[in-house]
Write a structure and sequence with these properties.
Length: about 400
């Protein structure tokens, strides 16, 4: 501490050493470009541009008026929300869930993902974390005093981790295995065969699998993402996180849930009862409408992304970029042209073209060589992005 700082409270090492959140850093760069007068096309964060469907908003408005929703909500989620989750799981995946023991509401899936390491890791324990991957897997692990053992994902292995390559000494120290399919940022998908291998691995090393399924409802053509819990034995060793954010254009509402292994749900629930006071019941009423109300809503949202995917994939290929069309998620994982790093190409697109993307390396070392674009702008803006890229070249 410098002399002038001697009287100031010292910030804990765990915060000082915490990296800046990827999208907070990108927000700063956007602000700098905006201040220079650049007209931006922002394809960086996965924040849907379309409004929350009106049936969900109507449900919320009525629920806000009801004084029954004004007090503390039940810690684990209202019974009716947890029942709605169980009904949705049965309808969508054919999986039976006990709404009381196997479902927990979250303040968005990010919150649950950030907190679950605190329920399972002792200092020095490991989480097995995909690289590239959602930064919160590593950050939650570090805040719990643990360390991340990274599992590289590459195009050659379909962006699936090779579990056999994990050394036994790391597997023995690991308490959690994070998986995420459909995958952010690579847009890769995983089948039941891979999930089956993961279950066997988890059984062998007594590891809890945390499957992040935030993008399970954003899919294309005839592909239907499975739940990890569809695999035999999965509920004994794992939980699955969901978010209403991406599926229903509800990122600002902060509602998600986790389902699966009852002991894990209970351990996370115990932590949460001590640090938060549940999720506003009116938001949960809106969540029930989202999950089990008008099902055509999801189809319409998917149709919009499907059209955008065609436009952007075609345009970027014409511009000379290499890209595999995604089967799911609203992300494109694009190979960086030779001569650029991920960050260098993102800077080029921002500075010369006003296009904001996410560098693959922001999701981990193995993301180097790629950038991510989100399909979260309308067709015209995507066409404009393509036109700008063709104009500036690379
Ligand atoms: C993303 O864009 O990858 C994330 O969904 C953003 C976030 O959750 O912070």
């Amino acid at each position: 501490m410098t002399k002038s700082n001697k009287t100031k409270p010292e910030i804990a090492r765990r915060i000082r050493e915490l990296p800046e959140y990827l999208f907070a850093g990108i927000d700063r760069k956007k602000a700098e470009a905006l201040a220079k007068g650049v007209v931006l096309i922002d394809l960086s964060i996965g924040d849907p541009d379309q409004p929350t469907p009106s049936n969900i908003i109507r449900a919320m408005k009525l629920a806000v008026e009801d004084p029954a929703n004004h007090g503390y909500p039940p810690y684990e989620g209202t019974n009716s929300f947890r029942e709605a989750v169980a009904t949705w799981y049965k309808t969508r995946f054919g999986i039976e869930l006990d709404p009381v023991k196997e479902v927990l509401v979250l303040t968005g899936s990010k919150e649950g993902i950030a907190h679950i390491p605190m329920s399972f890791l002792n200092p020095g324990d490991l989480s097995l974390v995909p690289d590239p991957g959602y930064p919160v897997y590593n950050v939650g692990t570090r805040l719990a005093g643990g360390g991340s053992y990274y599992l590289p994902l590459s195009r050659e292995n379909g962006f699936l981790p090779d579990l056999e390559k994990i050394p036994a000494r790391a597997a023995k120290r690991a308490k959690l295995l994070f998986l995420n399919y459909p995958n952010n940022p690579t847009a890769a998908v995983a089948g039941k065969e891979f999930f089956g291998e993961a279950v066997k691995f988890a059984e062998k090393y007594r590891i809890l699998i945390c499957h992040d399924a935030a993008y399970s409802e954003v899919y294309y053509d005839d592909y239907l993402p499975p739940s990890f819990l569809e695999v035999e034995g999965a509920k004994e060793v794992g939980v699955e996180f969901h978010s209403l954010s991406k599926t229903f254009n509800m990122t600002g509402w902060r509602i998600g849930f986790v389902v699966g292994n009852a002991e894990a749900i209970s351990a996370l629930g115990k932590l949460k009862t001590n640090i938060d006071s549940g999720l506003f019941s009116a938001v949960q009423v809106a969540g029930i409408e989202a999950l089990n109300g008008d099902r055509t809503v999801m189809e319409k949202i998917r149709a919009v992304y499907q059209e955008r995917r065609e436009v952007l994939v075609k345009g970027l290929k014409e511009a000379g970029l290499e890209i595999d069309p995604p089967k799911a998620t609203f992300y494109l994982w694009i190979k960086v042209p030779s001569g650029y790093t991920s960050v260098g190409f993102v800077e080029h697109l921002l500075e010369a073209g006003g296009i904001v993307c996410t560098p693959g390396s922001g999701f981990g070392l193995a993301g180097e060589g790629y950038i991510r674009m989100a399909l979260t702008k309308d067709k015209d803006r995507l066409n404009e992005a393509v036109a700008r890229i063709k104009k500036i070249g690379f």
